[in-house]
Structures are given as C-alpha cells and as structure tokens.
Specification:
Elements: E1 3-7, H1 19-33, E2 37-42, E3 51-54, E4 57-61, H2 67-79, E5 85-89, E6 108-111, H3 117-123, H4 126-142, E7 147-150, H5 153-163, E8 170-172, H6 179-183, E9 194-200, H7 207-220, E10 225-231, H8 235-248, E11 254-258, H9 262-271, E12 274-277, H10 286-293, E13 298-301, E14 315-318, H11 323-335, H12 337-352, H13 356-374
Parallel strand pairs: 1-2, 1-5, 2-4, 5-6, 6-7, 7-8, 9-10, 9-12, 10-11, 12-13, 13-14
Antiparallel strand pairs: 3-4
Helix pairs in contact: 1-13, 3-4, 7-8, 7-11, 10-12
C-alpha cells in the first residue's frame, strides 16, 4: 500500500471545484479503490467540515488563500513520516502555491494543467499579469527536477518551450470521466438544433463569441437555440453576456442555466446537438469527453488541445476569435446529417478511451515509476 498526500485547490464537494480539482479528486478516488491511502489537503468552504472521509479519502480542509499553503506545511512537518509520495497542484486559482518542492522529501508528482500567461493577461491588469507570469516562470525553475503531469501533448510542449521544464520529466495523462458516463446507454434521440456552451462563467471561456456567432447561425438554421450553462463566477461577465444577447437581438433564442446540478448537466448534454468550446485556453476540456460520451460533437477553438478535439473526427476546430468560422462550423453540424452522424459516432468511441479506470491506471503507473526512480 502506498500512502499519498494530495495538496490541491478544492475537493469534490466545494462549489468552486474546477477541472484540475475534479481530476485530482478522480485520481485520489481511484488509487484508494486500488488499496492505497490518501490524505487530501484542500481549501476550506463555509458549510463544509474541516475533516471528513469521502469515498475512502481523508479530506482535510485547512484554510483559504495564503493560509492554506502555510497550514499544509505545518501539517506535513508533523506527519512527514506517514507518506510515501505527494501529489501537488503546482499552480491554481484563488490560492498561493504550496511550494512543496521546498520542503517535501518524498517523490512529488506536480500537476501543471496549462501555461497560464495568456489567462493572466486576459483576467488581470497588465502589471499584475506580468508579475504573475514571471512568478510562474520562477516556479517552473523550482520544479525542473520534479515529475510533472500534463493533460495533453500540446500542454507538454508548451510547458517545455515556454517555461523550460525538461521534456523527460513531463508525463502526459489525459482527463477522465466517471465510468457511468460511458456505460449509460447511448441516447439515440432526434435532437433539436440546441447549441450548448458549458463551463465556469469567466471571460476566457469565450461564451460571448458563441453569442456573437448566433445571428449568423440563425440565418441558416432558424430553429437554433443557444444554452449557456455552468457555474456562476463573475457577475459582471454574466451581466455583459445578457446585455450582448439583447444588443444582438437573440434574447429569445438564448437561455442561461447557471449553477446546475450534475444530473441537470447530463440532461442538457443529452438534448444538445453540438457543444461549443470557444475558450482562449484549455488544459484538456473535460466537457469534451462528457459531450462525446452522449454522442454530441464539439466545435472547439484553437485554444483547446488537438488531443481533446480532432478535426473531422469527434468535432470541428476553428481559429480562436474567428467568429465567422465558429458560426460556419456550428451550421455544418446542425444542417449536415452525414457530418453530424459521423462525428457523433466517433465521439462516442473517443470518450470510452477516457473512462475513469483506464486513465486512473495510468496515474497509478506514473506513481510507481516516480517512487521506483527515487529509490
């Protein structure tokens, strides 16, 4: 049995849990199912216990922001002999880095979901974005001799070229989805032309571009309907989206469904004919797998790795910010039955490669490799 310490952002019950948090949780859950033990340190949240066990994982919620890394360090100093390896989210939103490389003596697997420079400049004023980008490069220097998990080959190359991390230390392990997503019967429905945008409400996700493409889509497919769904995060961006829909005259053809449950999300995907992912940057894009698992093709920007969406196979790709190309790709899927059927069938097969147990086994192999190399 291997004893693992996880240093991550949020656990599965935290309402702000995002893609990297979910993937860390899925791996923790998997290795516990294989007989290992996991202590999972993450952010606190009002209404959640400071300590509890979930699916066999010991969850410790030790604080927020700058307090979380400090309390994690203090916990490690008291319990350092109780662990064989550490999994760390090297950089994450709404908290300072753990900097485990400075004090952890056991082997570390550091998850690096993407190079964040573009996101920093998209989300923050230029002076702050510059400072944060510089800090990420300095962090990468600290982690040069640590084994890194990247979600895609595109991300692996970016981490090497832009942050200088050695290729031989970067291991590609993709995103995964729970087994029930790919085990449920494929809903062979005659779907209405429903366009789905799904994710956290942040500007870099590019939902405004889906709205901008909608008038052109409606000119070729008058029954099309856009649903923007996911989790609230930026009230100002949400308000701007609603105003944009009004300004474009597409309020009647646009619907917002926010803070939905997992079951509501599944039902939305089942009813959709195409998922649009117009993000500036994605480490992988779990929503691609969720859509493909129900036979829904994806239209993805160039900010989405080709590992996740392959042109003409499980979806269509277009250059980021090219709204006309985005609209044309949506129109093709909505109006060309042959293209839709091919992408739908391929997507279903594609998603099955990323079932929880298949990808979890890759994590476990990486864990064995890292521990054996250190020995």
């Amino acid at each position: 049995m291997t004893r693992l310490l996880f240093l991550v952002g949020r656990d599965i019950n935290h309402p702000g849990a995002a893609g990297g948090d979910i993937q860390a949780w899925e791996w923790a859950r998997y290795v516990v199912s294989q007989g290992h033990s996991v202590t999972y340190i993450c952010s606190s949240y009002h209404g959640l216990k400071g300590e509890e066990e979930i699916a066999g994982v010991r969850v410790l919620r030790l604080g927020t922001g700058g307090l979380l890394p400090w309390h994690a360090f203090r916990f490690y100093r008291r319990h350092r002999h109780e662990f064989d390896a550490v999994y760390e989210d090297a950089i994450g939103g709404s908290r300072l880095p753990y900097l485990a490389r400075l004090y952890v003596s056991q082997p570390i697997i550091a998850a690096w979901h993407q190079v964040n420079r573009e996101l920093f400049y998209d989300l923050f004023p230029k002076p702050l974005a510059f400072t944060m980008s510089l800090a990420e490069k300095m962090l990468a220097k600290l982690y040069r001799d640590v084994d890194i998990r990247a979600p895609s080959e595109q991300c692996r190359m970016a981490l090497h070229k832009e942050l200088g991390l050695p290729l031989e230390h970067i291991h590609v392990i993709p995103a995964s989805i729970p087994g029930e997503w790919v085990m449920e019967p494929f809903p062979r429905l005659k779907r209405n032309p429903l366009i789905l945008c799904l994710g956290i409400m942040r500007p870099y996700k590019g939902f405004h571009m889906a709205l901008q493409a909608l008038p052109r889509v409606l000119s070729q497919c008058k029954d099309a309907h856009l649903v923007i769904a996911g989790r609230r995060f930026d009230p100002g961006y949400e308000q701007a989206l609603r105003k944009l829909a009004a300004d474009l005259g597409v309020t009647q053809q646009t619907e917002f469904k926010l803070d939905i449950t997992e079951e509501e999300k599944k039902e939305l995907i089942k009813r959709s004919k195409v998922l649009v992912l117009p993000s500036r940057l994605e480490g992988f894009g779990i929503v691609v797998l969720e859509a493909n698992a129900y036979g829904v093709p994806v239209v993805a920007s160039s900010g989405v790795p080709e590992d996740a969406v392959q042109q003409g196979y499980n979806g269509l790709r277009y250059p980021f910010e090219d709204v006309s190309a985005l609209a044309d790709s949506i129109i093709q899927i909505l109006t060309d039955d042959e293209v839709y059927a091919r992408l739908s069938a391929n997507g279903l097969a594609f998603a099955r490669q990323f079932a929880w147990r298949k990808v979890g086994a890759q994590y476990e192999e990486l864990l064995k490799l890292v521990i054996n190399n250190r020995r």
